[in-house]
Amino acid sequence: MIRTLSGATLKAAQPIKDIITTRRLHSTYDVAVVGGGIVGLATVRELILRHPSLSFVLLEKEKELAVHQSGHNSGVIHSGIYYTPGSLKARLCVRGATLAYEYCDKKGLPYKKCGKLIVALEQEEIPRLRALYERGMKNNVRDLSIVDAKGIREREPFCRGIMALDSPYTGIVDWRMVALRYGQDFEEAGGTVVTESEVNDISMVTESPAGSTEGMKYPIAIRDKKGNEVRCRYVLTCGGLYSDRLSQISGCSREPRIVPFRGDYLVLKPEKHYLVKGNIYPVPDPRFPFLGVHFTPRMDGSVWLGPNAVLAFKREGYKVYDFNVRDFADALLFRGLQRLVMKNLSYGIGEMYRGIFIGAQVKILQKYIPELSLSDVLRGPAGVRAQALDRDGNLVDDFVFDGGVGDVGSRVLHVRNAPSPAATSSLAIAEMVADEVESRFAL
Ligand SMILES: Cc1cc2nc3c(=O)[nH]c(=O)nc-3n(C[C@H](O)[C@H](O)[C@H](O)COP(=O)(O)OP(=O)(O)OC[C@H]3O[C@@H](n4cnc5c(N)ncnc54)[C@H](O)[C@@H]3O)c2cc1C
Q: Ranges for the FAD dependent oxidoreductase domain (predicted)?
């Protein structure tokens, strides 16, 4: 059960039972974290474990935790191959994967180290595949090797390709289950989780709370849409698809902006699961590293194919016809998106086409597994990526953490861009953000 800001109790539907215990809600806290996805939960957990004598609250707008990106993803434990050496993504993914495996072992959470092949189909892809290998080695990814066509067939008997990068350290896990376990650790350490609290104002106050004897110890007021308020000393936001709006309401910069891209998956019919053993990925196009359909086995035994990437008309819209006027207008009027569309129109149309006509998607997948046919697949679930864009239409690739200016800005830290592989990296991001919180704020 979870206590909300208004005091009502809610039943949380979660795979791990009794994850959140009932706890009395105070109105003042040392630190408030907004956003109960895997990044917010990992970070608030890390903070309370480091500072058990401080008080922490996590505010989440939904009834349940981790239901957006953290509950709608491919479920892969990435090993850190793709990312620019020295970037936050590279460092935090490699460390995050190790920490994730250790954490799952310690808590008894199931995962499978089923590996991953990045498969080259054409000669022209081989230089890029070799460059990826070099990159992975620079990033200290474990156990990488290059295999030939025979090596591919030994690992994936139904997969065709001329050469592949083999990453046996890559795995799969249910990231939502992991996120909820972080939440349980947080609760057990004395933290408070409040759901159904959509924060829409973060500001400095000039008066102490009614009846308070502590003066201005808690100068930040966080208000939600229902008019409830908590006071705190410091705020961290981890808002995923709403990270730009959370920055804006605290007086910080709105940029980089978030543009939502929906990815629709196909699923393999159960009688065809034998076709796929581990993760099978294409050699990525360097211009769009997150595009390119892949084959991903899931912890429940199913196999997902895809996803594509199309502009979503609603930030948390998982269906094709989901539409929100503000989200749509925001995206369309943003110069960064207009420029991105102009530069990549044919790509965008191709992605939309493949979303509508799944036969076109299957054609691409058949290049890797020729035995696959249209009748072997069904339409599956979807996820929405929070894609950060700058004004010039460039995708913001790396993780971005940012504070602000002025009275509120000096007490706020925003996780502004935490795209894939942020689930894999979550425990490493949490360490880094906790270090940053400690250096910026006088905890
Ligand atoms: C299709 C897809 C596939 C992916 N595959 C993988 C993968 O295989 N491996 C991997 O490592 N990563 C993957 N990722 C990336 C990963 O899922 C995300 O990077 C990660 O979940 C981000 O976590 P988050 O906590 O930042 O965001 P979210 O999980 O979106 O959480 C943000 C939370 O903030 C809350 N919130 C927002 N605004 C407010 C407000 N005003 N008040 C209160 N609460 C608010 C939201 O309700 C939400 O719960 C994938 C992502 C997608 C979309």
A: 30-435
